[in-house]
UniProtKB/TrEMBL annotation:
Lineage: Bacteria, Bacillati, Actinomycetota, Actinomycetes, Kitasatosporales
UniProt xrefs under PROSITE patterns: HTH_TETR_2 (PS50977)
GO molecular function: DNA binding
Record keywords: DNA-binding, Transcription, Transcription regulation
DNA-binding interval(s): 29-48
Keyword Transmembrane helix: no
PANTHER family: TRANSCRIPTIONAL REGULATORY PROTEIN
Record keyword Transcription present: yes
Segments forming domain HTH tetR-type: 6-66
InterPro entries for this protein: Homeodomain-like_sf (IPR009057), HTH_TetR (IPR001647), Tet_transcr_reg_TetR-rel_C_sf (IPR036271), TetR_C (IPR011075)
Protein name: TetR family transcriptional regulator
Domain of life: Bacteria
């Protein structure tokens, strides 16, 4: 007889994702996980494995549903610097208002909150970094093609700086930085890139 689950695994995973995102893996006890998901320990372990496996699955879900769509929009936008500004504007709005205000980015939180010796988590974080870096670099190359940047600007280096700025926005938003302050920093940074062509 096949094992019939009397719950929706993706719904349970989404609830675990929210718990880990808001509080971090280290602070989320297995009891807190069972309360958040509505599952008993045996169902939790049978479906997802231990807490570390559940956390990794939640990180992967976050990447699929939140990180990749934002990266894809940035990569596919053909406006150059305005696309980057819109990326940051949306990021700041998500981090400073609404349901997830003050939670930061689950992936950026993982850089701070987790044991970096887990090779699967480390690989997931590194891959996310590469994908965001590639998206920023693509947008900067588009900006260069449209004459928005000086020909001598090192777009790879600038892309890395913008990725680190995004990480900073995520971290600062968790500590209560206001949206106007964060957006002001982003606009000033993009202004430096923009004035390079003047």
């Amino acid at each position: 007889m096949p094992d019939i689950k009397h719950f929706d695994p993706d719904n349970a995973l989404e609830r675990a994702e929210r718990l880990f995102w808001q509080h971090g893996a280290a602070k989320a006890s297995i009891q807190a996980v069972t309360v958040a998901t509505g599952l008993n320990r045996s169902s939790l372990y049978a479906t997802f494995g231990g807490k570390q496996e559940l956390y990794l699955a939640a990180l992967r879900r976050y990447v699929r549903h939140r990180a990749r769509p934002a990266q894809r929009r940035l990569t596919e936008d053909d406006r150059g610097l305005p696309a980057i500004r819109d990326f940051f504007t949306a990021l700041i709005a998500a981090r400073c208002s609404g349901e997830h205000a003050g939670w930061g980015c689950m992936l950026v939180n993982a850089h701070v909150d987790t044991d970096h010796t887990d090779p699967e988590i480390r690989a997931l974080l590194d891959e996310h970094h590469r994908q965001l870096l590639d998206a920023m670099h693509a947008a900067l190359e588009t900006a260069r093609e449209q004459g928005q940047l000086s020909p001598g600007l090192a777009t790879k280096v600038a892309a890395e700086a913008l990725v680190l700025l995004a990480y900073g926005v995520n971290v600062r938003s968790r500590t209560g930085a206001d949206a106007d302050s964060l957006l002001g920093t982003v606009i000033a940074t993009l202004g430096l890139l923009d004035t390079a062509c003047r």
